[in-house]
Design a protein that fits this description.
Two copies of one chain form a homodimer.
Chain A (H helix, E strand, L loop, with lengths): L6 H9 L14 E10 L3 H10 L6 E4 L23 E5 L2 E4 L12 E7 L2 H9 L5 H4 L6 E7 L9 E10 L3 H9 L10 E2 L25 E7 L3 H9 L4 E4 L5 E6 L6
Antiparallel strand pairs in A: 1-5, 1-10, 1-11, 2-5, 3-4, 3-10, 6-7, 7-9, 8-9
Chain lengths: 260, 260
């Protein structure tokens, strides 16, 4: 992956099929987003689900029905092509993982672009906090927890979290750096013992890839923008499109601009 | 006004008509909210308007259609009675200012409870920053600006701001204290020359009361939860109910819990 690309150049590489992989570490300093696309009749319930669960689902842009192009966080970016990989859920069942969704697009689709924890990884690195998934060039490990989300309409479920192992001495710094960025999930939701949030095997993530946890390091868990996919499994809309976990849109928004 | 009351006790005083005044300084340390009530068919557009303008319209709780009682920020509080004074807009025209809206309540009403800058006033005072409207026991001055909001559906308009005069030396502290509280409007949107944001006479606010600006003080402007009322004037729904500016709901949420 060429990390020297601008966000526009990176999206161009994604759009033309040159980059279909995960995006951890892509375009350091720029915010990335998760995706949820739903038919308009589910849009109110989902917007309310996001409002009620802002740590897991911080919305950075919501498009008009039928509109593929973004206008605020990545002007001109195409919702149907500029994420490297998508997931298509039909009646709550994952049916496809295409690299674009142009042929599936409908005039009643509303797309929700959700802040992503990849956005704060460069801030952690700048602050001297190691980010293992970047060091090991892997997708971040993500887990379905037992932390309940506040339901809204047809949407309900538990929170999905991403995990980064942090050395004990750097945990306060990791918390304070990320707490300043609530629009990309903010502070951790849990630090330490994974079993307390329903994770039985930290080596077997539900999404993404496992990473090494060294002696003296603690697993630290942040709310994750894959959370809506659990809600989609429960709500079973006739169709829903999401990003494939870890395969994000790189926006034109600098992470520094998302700090409070 | 008895500022020793708990939020529950204060709401009881409001509900029984003992307190019908503005709420600046009420129950120090507890967050207050602005109100917008709309028929359900406007709810998606308004929810999107809030998502697109989070500094002016930070939503703390949205109820189910027809539900008067809050369940999160002030469990058991009654949307129709626990704000000290309401405004009723019919077809975009302000028609009444009742002290409750029980008889107007409809099964299709959705209520939006919006974070309020009164919430951070006690944090400013604790940090040594004077809050003139509390010192002078007045409602805060609020102004319609020329700062455009990002439209959504039928809702559009410019931002309303609240103003507090701050001594030059304390402006950085006022910014840093309030920036930590994005769910109650966060950092100022403008500091200094009122004409740059379309305010022609700082002594003649559009809502609330004017306060003294002493020599050596600068007017500092924060996004205000009265912003939706401008959008209601433009959208002209057949009915909309808001709080009367400055007449807030006192919630059970401690301001400290709203800090990032």
């Amino acid at each position: 992956m060429n990390t020297e690309l601008t966000p526009r150049g990176f999206r161009e590489a994604v759009r033309t099929g040159l980059h279909t992989g995960q995006t951890s570490g892509a375009c350091p300093g720029y915010a990335q987003t998760n995706l949820v696309v739903l038919p308009q009749r589910y849009a109110y319930d989902f917007l309310l689900y996001a409002q009620r669960n802002p740590a897991a689902i911080p919305l950075l842009e919501v498009t008009e029905a039928g509109e593929r192009l973004l206008r605020k966080i990545a002007p001109g970016a195409d919702t149907a092509t500029d994420y490297p990989k998508y997931r298509v859920y039909r009646d709550g069942v994952l049916t496809e993982e295409p690299i674009d969704v142009v042929k599936l697009w409908r005039d009643d689709f509303v797309s929700f672009h959700v802040g992503c924890s990849f956005s704060f990884e460069s801030s952690l690195i700048e602050a001297g906090v190691p980010v293992r998934n970047i060091e090991e060039n892997r997708n971040v490990p993500m887990y379905v927890t037992n932390i309940p989300c506040d339901p809204a309409g047809v949407f309900s479920g538990t929170m999905v979290v991403s995990m980064r192992p942090i050395p004990y001495a750097l945990i306060p710094r990791a918390v304070s750096v990320t707490a300043q960025m609530p629009r990309v999930h903010g502070a951790p939701v849990h630090i330490g013992d994974p079993s307390l949030i329903g994770i039985t095997d930290v080596g077997a993530p539900n999404y993404g890839e496992s990473v090494t946890i060294n002696p003296g390091e603690v697993p630290v868990f942040w709310p994750c923008g894959v959370t809506p996919q659990v809600a989609v499994l429960n709500a079973k809309p006739e169709i829903a499109i999401t990003h494939a976990p870890g395969h994000m849109l790189v926006t034109d928004v600098r992470n520094a601009a998302l700090r409070v």
